[in-house]
């Protein structure tokens, strides 16, 4: 068995303005026996598998954040502590070495969603077929999923519903079509 062991502590600091000082927050520690002690900030996400602390090699410790979000932006660093075995088999910390901080930053861009409705047939009267398309486009949405609700506005003379709008048909994110509160009498 080796006479030197390593432990690690991971720290996080949220991004700040240059004139603002914010302390680093301890996320977790892992000892040489792989015992992981989670702090409040990382506990729930680690239990959900979103934050993974691991030790792939005897001298390598890893922090992995899956599905990063705005709250993960900031600086991260680790402190490796080396421990030496004493003659009585106890362990004493001999040195702490901190890494340089690693930044997780990205530019934030507003999400944009545009919908365009186009009537396909220019002429419409009772008894004819009405057809329209709705085209959606998005920017800065990684994997968009859309749902659609088609409504009809009642004319001012025919306001049988309180708001004058009738929900006709919907399409959810799983492509399930549902007939809403529209009937042939509407």
Automatic annotation (TrEMBL):
<keyword id="KW-1015">Disulfide bond</keyword>
<dbReference type="InterPro" id="IPR036179">
    <property type="entry name" value="Ig-like_dom_sf"/>
</dbReference>
<dbReference type="GO" id="GO:0016020">
    <property type="term" value="C:membrane"/>
</dbReference>
<dbReference type="InterPro" id="IPR013783">
    <property type="entry name" value="Ig-like_fold"/>
</dbReference>
<keyword id="KW-0393">Immunoglobulin domain</keyword>
<keyword id="KW-0732">Signal</keyword>
<protein>
    <recommendedName>
        <fullName>Ig-like domain-containing protein</fullName>
    </recommendedName>
</protein>
<dbReference type="InterPro" id="IPR051102">
    <property type="entry name" value="IgSF_V-set/TM_domain"/>
</dbReference>
């Amino acid at each position: 068995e080796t006479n030197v062991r390593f432990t690690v502590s991971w720290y996080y600091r949220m991004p700040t303005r240059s004139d603002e000082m914010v302390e680093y927050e301890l996320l977790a520690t892992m000892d040489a026996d792989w015992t992981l002690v989670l702090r409040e900030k990382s506990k729930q996400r680690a239990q959900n598998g979103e934050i993974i602390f691991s030790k792939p090699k005897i001298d390598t410790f890893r922090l992995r954040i899956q599905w990063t979000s705005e709250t993960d932006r900031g600086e991260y660093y680790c402190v490796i502590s080396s421990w030496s075995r004493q003659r009585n088999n106890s362990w004493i910390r001999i040195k702490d070495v901190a890494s340089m901080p690693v930044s997780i930053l990205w530019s934030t861009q507003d999400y944009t969603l545009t919908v365009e409705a186009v009537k396909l047939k220019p002429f419409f009267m009772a008894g004819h077929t009405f057809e329209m398309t709705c085209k959606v486009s998005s920017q800065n949405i990684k994997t968009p999923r859309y749902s659609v609700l088609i409504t009809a506005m009642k004319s001012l003379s025919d306001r049988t519903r309180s708001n004058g709008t009738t929900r006709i048909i919907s399409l959810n994110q799983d492509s399930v079509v549902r007939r809403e509160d529209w009937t042939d009498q509407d």
